[in-house]
Every structure is written in structure tokens, then in C-alpha cells.
Amino acid sequence: MVRPPGGDKNGLKRGTWMPEEDRKLIAYVTRYGCWNWRQLPKFAGLSRCGKSCRLRWMNYLRPNIKRGNYSREEEETIIKLHESLGNRWSAIAAQLPGRTDNEIKNHWHTNLKKGLKKSSDVPRQENNSSNNLSQLEKIQKRNDPNNSLLYPTDTEIIGRFPSSDLQPSSSRSSSITTNTSVEPRINMVEDDDFTSTEASAETSGNFWTQPFLTDNSYIACDFLAPFMDTEDLSPVVDEFSFPYGLFEEIHGANDLSVPLEKTQIREREPNDPLLSCTAQIMDSSPSSPQPSSSELSSMTKDNAVASSTNMVADDVVTSLEASAETTGDFWTEPFFDGSSYITSDVLAPFTNNEYLSPAFVEYFPGYGLYGEYEGVNMIN
DNA sequence: AATTCTATCAACCGCCAAGTC
DNA sequence: CGACTTGGCGGTTGATAGAAT
């Protein structure tokens, strides 16, 4: 079904995307956008061509992609649009929110086209027979003989996450303990290890599929929560926040009717080890992840990063004490040096809550999330 | 149980249009 | 105006899960 990993062309990886690659791409694009697909893989730390990254994002990873069964209305729309537009899949996809041109194209070739051909082969009398199934109904019946006409609504998508996806293996899932969990209402995905939290009674179906399969769910931010196994965490995260791990908060993943502000997070414990966090992060300004050229030219070493931790505010441009080792332009180095890339997030004191999610602020008042960059202070 | 066949769909390829220099 | 880059599109491939034999 999927191409094997490991294909190699000019040192670039091909074939099936690995979960780690997906996470890198998601992390980069959600944070910085797709400003240049060709350059993106280099800065996202991916050994893929830009085209492959774009395809993966557009057809698979971007938010609001609807997967799984097609509703009757959707199939009707596809058939109708195909009659008028032909194989202009992107134009057809534009009329079907959440569906990609590639998926529609596949669905057409594997289901609809054959069904239409089959029904056109049927003698006319049979077409007008008393059971009177429409052409579409016949297609649907063939595709799903057990329940052909019971189609989910747009919000009742039956999740089906494909093979190279982000789902943890069963063995990984089974290693999850309640001791490392957070409040059930929130669905979190551990950042540095593919470990999920305790299963929630409210979280029906596949925990992993929901955030990616529902219309109004998306990865909103990272946050920290208790996590005991630090083996797979980066040293910086470990140092800053042990015994915590980084998690992604998925808005509304398990209940689309619950507004974000009502999502709950585990009560903060007394003697929170985070309080010992001592990073000196002082300044802030809004969110453009990559500064304009004028911003770049006005940026000096004085608003560079800390040499010791290589941290950059995630949602803000943050200044920190300048390091003698941090030469050149703070922004250009992590983004434009081939050896530097975003590696993980860390938590550190931060006073401007404007750009943080309510859930995050509630749980970590006074803290913000920062991206860690490798090699920022090593570049000469 | 083993083998063969079929359906599926993620990913790749080549081409084209638009934008930039 | 032409060369080049980039993003986007549609056709096609090919591994594999599941069904059929």
C-alpha cells in the first residue's frame, strides 16, 4: 500500500514518511508556515525534497483534512463535478472541504469510476427496475454492502489513519501508565517519545486519529505535563523540566462541542519543580516566526539567544543576555545554517500571555514555550 | 495453510503556469 | 524577452492488506 522507506536519491529520503519526519514537518509548518517548500526541509531538519514535504503536508498532515468514508453527498458532488469539470481534481477538491485532490482522485479511480461503468453496462430495463436504486446508491452498496446507505455526516468521520502514521504501536501504547498522565479531557501527544497518556472514557475511538480527522481540530501548542520516562527527551528538556515531558495539546480532539477555554488540565501540584526554572527570558514581541529583512537588519547581538541553552521564544521574539559566543545574526543562524535546526521545545519563565493558549496559561502561569535550536552558539 | 489475485492509496514523476530576475 | 525557480496539478506506480482460490 505504501512505498517502503529508505529510498535514496541525491541523499534525499524517499518513500513512506516516518512518524519522526511527520512530527518535524508538522512542528515546522505549524510554527513557521510554508514560506518556501524547497528550502523548508533543510530548516525543518528533514532529508526530503521540498516537493515531497509539500505533498505530505497538503495531502496528509495539514489541519482539517477529512479522511475515511465519503458521505453520500460528497460522492454525489464528486460525480456531478466530474461530469462538468472532468479530471480537474483540484477544482473538485475545492468544492469538498477537507478532501484533497489526491484522495478524491484515488476515490474516483477505485470506487466511483468502476461503479459508474458497472451501472452503465446494466441493461436499460434493469436500470429502471422496481428496486429503483440510483446510480450512486449502487456504487455505495457495492462499496459497503452491509451498510451502504448509512453515511456519516461530516462530523462523524470514521477515523482510518494509514500505515505510516503517527499512531503508536500497540506495544508502545501498552507501556502507557496512568502515573504519567494528565487530566483525561485533554488529548496530548508526547513530543519526544511516542507515548500517549491514559485512555479517557470520553475519548472514544482512536485517540490518534481524531485530532487529524476532525474538521476543527488542530495542533495548537505544546505544553509540559508530568512524564516519568526521560530517556527519549532531549537533555535540555530534561534539565529544565524533569520530571515533565512535552506534550502537544490537541484542541477539541475528544469533544468538538467543548470550547477550548473549557478544556481542563491537571491541577498543578505544590512544589512544582518548574518553579526552580531559572532562565532569564525578558523581552517579547509578537508572533512572526521569521523576521522580515528589515527586522533582521535591525536585530543585533543584544537581542540574541542565551548561549547556554539556545532558546528562542516560540510565539514571540525574545531577547536574552547576549553571549560572546553568539556571533552574527541570531535569526539567520538557526534558520539558514544547514547544520542548525529546530529540535525541541523547552519551558521557561515568560510574562506575556497574549500569545499563549488559555489552557497553557492556566497551567503554567508565568511560563512560555520556547524552541530549542542546535548549534546556535557553535557557529563561527 | 499456502498461494494467487485484487483493491487500495501514499508517494512519485513529469509537465505546466506564474512569478522573478 | 528569455532563463530560471517555485508551486501546483494530474497521471501513474508499486507495496501490501485482505479476499479469493
Features:
8 strands, 31% helix, 380 residues, alpha+beta, Arc Repressor Mutant, subunit A, DNA-binding, globular, disordered C terminus, three-stranded antiparallel β-sheet, single chain, 11% strand, 4 domains
Q: What does this protein look like?
A:
With 380 residues, the chain is an alpha+beta fold. The protein has 4 domains: 7-61, Arc Repressor Mutant, subunit A, CATH 1.10.10.60; 72-143, Orthogonal Bundle (Arc Repressor Mutant, subunit A); 172-271, no CATH class; 293-373, no CATH class. Helices cover 31% and strands 11% of the residues. The chain is built from 14 helices and 8 strands. It has helices at 19-32, 40-44, 50-61, 72-85, 89-94, 101-121, 124-127, 135-143, 170-174, 209-213, 235-241, 293-298, 332-336, 358-363, and strands at residues 7-9, 12-14, 187-190, 219-226, 244-250, 311-313, 342-349, 367-373. Helix 1 (19-32) packs across helix 3. The protein is globular. The model is unreliable at 122-351, 354-364 and 368-380 (pLDDT under 50). It binds a DNA duplex (21 and 21 nucleotides) through residues 1-4, 7, 14-17, 36-38, 50-52, 54-56, 58-60, 87-90, 101-103, 105-107, 109-111, 162-164. InterPro entries: Myb_dom (IPR017930), Plant_SW-associated_TFs (IPR051953), SANT/Myb (IPR001005). Residues 114-188, 278-300 are annotated as: Disordered. GO terms for molecular function: DNA binding. Residues 125-137, 163-181, 284-298 have a biased composition (Low complexity).
